[in-house]
Design goal:
heterodimer; A: alpha/beta; TIM Barrel; 8-stranded parallel sheet; 18 strands; 30% helix; globular; B: alpha/beta; 2 domains; 5-stranded parallel sheet; 4-stranded parallel sheet
């Protein structure tokens, strides 16, 4: 199906485009509207925004291994509904994606039942144990786009140094979950005023800071890219800012929940507020906003982490870490960042397109003529209320039920085909 | 004062108003009189069933609750579950739903995880009385401490209360803190810096890391039990050093006001946090706390039972 999206505000941060105009889709690719034959279907998008398809660098699809919480099919349906056209699948499945077979499994299922594009991330170490390097070259050959031990930061600095150095040969960026496991041992929430008042074990910001320092040093030593996942602490933003000024190849992401919620919520003892890294203080939240505004943080990623209701309906201490995010991210970002004046629309879109594409080093997240037509259509002013019962995801573990949002993705196009259309 | 009790649960002192706390203390004073009669039993909870669900072991609190329930003529079931075995099999919510299905009226629960009773209370019909959850809250211990202080000192306004020990891991310290602050007392926390976080200053507590500052001018001192495992975790070098630097002994007790009360939630490590001569001395009200605990728990059970649907 060929068509022209017309009368929209077209924003493409990669090509530095922000203007009223038309975008044509021909045979699944972006085309020049002038070259389209007369009579081509025209879709009027007056008042709407056409952007490159959003990329989520941080998604747990749980497949293989925990398909009661999510599958490649339901996870990609959720991504489409949320406005994402490409998602990076974290390797902490069961078995872990530490071998070419599991990467192949993910790609095969994504091909067969995926609704959006799945970019698999390989594990840095065997079985994510942080002890031995995984077969990084084979992971690359199988189709991995990056490496991560997300959820379990490699503690052995010598091993980490070798991993970063070795990955460079294969052009695979490192996506690191930074946390010193001894400093945050047994922690269930941010260490601060509220953990002290509630009598709960805290995870100090220092645990994150320490490993970000480590990664900055290793990135400098090896001259290779390290992307810091879900930056949550004020001090972490400051460290990254300085490192980037110094020319070190480190980038960072923020999640929609860390920019909109704080640790005061924990007094509800609702495990839908439990995640790792934890919700931190208001100061930390404000520092993340600053980090996004000055491009210390170039990426927004969800850390979509599905868990079943059974797993989450337990004492806070015993609940697993993580919340889902694919179907709320754009609403939260539009509300908290765009409508509250933290980021302009092109700047916000760059965090979901240009930023993640640069981390991966891939020619995606843009509207260049000839590239696959992966497009996200935004209605910047549509008001919605988050209703988990409407989610396409198999899981419902979100703290945003009832959240009133302004702005959302009303269309998601993958290879020219609408996979979500709410207009 | 005209305040009505409207809660089916008692989860933490943090939730209560000063008036509600005073109502419990006034009610407890009536029940204390009952305990001094020849016939100590009243029919207030006759026909009601109370389950004592102890997911963390306890002897003194459970005994006190059980006796309070008996004195109120309730029917009682005791369930002791090890939290680890509970985790392997049935979830806590399922366990409590099963108890609910037996048409039980009240559940008194102790749990090692902070917030466990807060998690359950809105999800089940029976009233939940928190008998201690992790390091979060121990409302009836705080109430019996408040009752004892009020009985001896008459008022809380301007009273200097020092709580000494492992504040970081203490639900007793936290519950006392909220109650004392709401009632107008000045609260000081004393203990080693590793176990006594400065963050408490944000809610108006004075936080001291040496005993002179912590005890000077105190009308009441409440000592917390120091657990040996904290030494193994590296919070302080040794029990003997702890005792010398942070224990209450005749030397450090000289900073207290001469008529200061000496309190302890028990069990005491004699010679560690509290010297025997003081534990058994004229200023000690430790055993009266135990007596008052019974009256306070009767009052709490009576009040929440009155709000059941």
């Amino acid at each position: 199906m060929n068509y022209i999206l017309e009368n929209a505000r077209v924003i493409d941060p990669v090509q530095n485009i922000d203007s009223a105009g038309d975008i044509a889709v021909c045979d699944g690719r972006i085309a020049d509207p002038a070259t389209m034959p007369a009579g081509t279907e025209r879709i009027d998008l007056k008042g709407k925004v056409v952007a490159p398809g959003f990329i989520d660098l941080h998604v747990h699809l749980r497949h293989p291994g925990k398909t009661q919480a999510e599958t490649i099919h339901t996870g990609t349906l959720a991504a489409a509904a949320g406005g994402f056209t490409s998602i990076v699948a974290m390797p902490n499945t069961s078995p872990a994606a530490d071998n070419p077979g599991t990467i192949h499994f993910v790609l095969t299922h994504a091909e067969r039942e995926g609704v959006v594009k799945v970019l698999p991330c390989g594990a840095m170490t065997k079985n994510l144990e942080g002890k031995e390097m995984s077969s990084i070259g084979s992971l690359k050959a199988a189709g991995a786009v990056a490496l991560s031990d997300d959820g379990r930061c490699v503690q052995d600095h010598q091993l980490m140094r070798h991993i970063v150095h070795y990955s460079r040969t294969f052009d695979l960026p490192i996506l690191d979950h930074c946390g010193d496991l001894l400093l945050e041992a047994e922690g269930v929430m941010h260490e601060g005023e509220w953990s002290v008042l509630l009598g709960m074990k805290g995870m100090p910001s220092a645990a994150e800071e320490l490993m970000i320092y480590r990664d900055i040093i290793l990135s400098r030593m090896t001259n290779w890219k390290i992307h810091i996942q879900h930056v949550s602490a004020k001090e972490s933003v400051a460290i990254l800012r300085q490192a980037r000024r110094d020319g070190i190849r480190v980038t960072g992401e923020a999640t929609p929940h860390h920019i909109s919620l704080t640790d005061v919520e924990i007094k509800r003892f609702d495990s839908n507020y439990k995640m790792n890294p934890p919700l931190r203080s208001e100061e930390d939240r404000l520092a993340l906003l600053e980090g996004l505004a000055d491009d210390t943080l170039t990426v927004i990623a969800t850390d979509h982490a599905p868990h079943t209701a059974t797993e989450k309906m337990v004492e806070f201490d015993y609940a697993p870490f993580g919340i889902i995010g694919l179907e709320t991210a754009v609403q939260i970002c539009m509300t908290e960042l765009y409508h509250k004046g933290v980021l302009s629309l092109p700047h916000l879109i760059s965090k979901l397109t240009k930023g993640p594409a640069e981390v991966l080093g891939l020619d995606i997240g843009n509207l260049k003529t000839g590239n696959p037509a992966d497009i996200t259509i935004l209605d910047p002013d549509r008001e919605t209320v988050v209703d988990p019962d409407q989610f396409k995801s198999k899981s419902r573990n979100t703290p945003f039920a009832g959240y009133r949002a302004k702005g959302c993705a009303i269309g998601t196009i993958v290879n020219g085909k609408f996979v979500h259309r709410a207009f | 004062m005209d305040v009505k009790w409207t809660r089916k649960d008692l989860l933490s002192i943090y939730d209560l108003s000063a008036e509600e706390i005073t109502l419990i203390l006034d009610t407890a004073a009536e029940f204390k009189k009952v305990s001094q009669r020849k016939i100590k039993k009243v029919p207030a909870l006759r026909g009601k069933t109370v389950v004592n669900l102890f997911v963390e072991p306890s002897t003194r609190t459970r005994t006190s609750f059980e006796l309070a329930e008996q004195r109120l003529s309730a029917d009682i079931i005791n369930i002791a579950a090890d939290s680890s075995s509970l985790r392997k099999g049935e979830t806590l919510l399922d366990t409590v739903k099963n108890i609910e299905a037996l048409q039980v009226d009240l559940i008194v629960m102790r749990h090692s995880a902070a917030g466990a009773p807060n998690f359950l209370a809105p999800r089940v019909r029976p009233g939940i009385v928190n008998a201690g959850d992790g390091a979060h809250s121990h409302p009836t211990q705080a109430l019996l401490d408040l009752f004892t202080i009020r009985e001896k000192k008459g008022t809380f306004k301007g009273l200097n209360v020092s709580i000494i020990g492992d504040i970081l891991h203490s639900r007793v310290a936290r519950s006392n803190m909220w109650g004392l602050l709401k009632l107008g007392a000045n609260v000081t926390f004393g203990g080693p810096s590793t176990l006594n976080p400065k963050a408490f200053e944000k809610v108006g507590v004075r936080v001291c890391h040496n005993m002179k500052d912590a005890l000077e001018g105190a009308d009441v001192v409440n000592l917390l039990r120091i657990q040996h495992e904290r030494q193994r975790s590296g919070f302080f070098p040794s029990v003997s050093e702890y005792s010398k630097v942070f224990g209450l002994n005749p030397d450090s007790a000289k900073y207290l006001k001469p008529d200061a009360l000496i309190m302890h939630p028990g069990p005491i490590n004699r010679g560690v946090e509290l010297d025997s001569s003081l534990a058994d001395g004229p200023q000690s009200v430790i055993l009266e706390q135990v007596t008052n605990g019974l009256a306070v728990r009767m009052a709490v059970l009576f009040l929440v039972a009155g709000c059941l649907k």
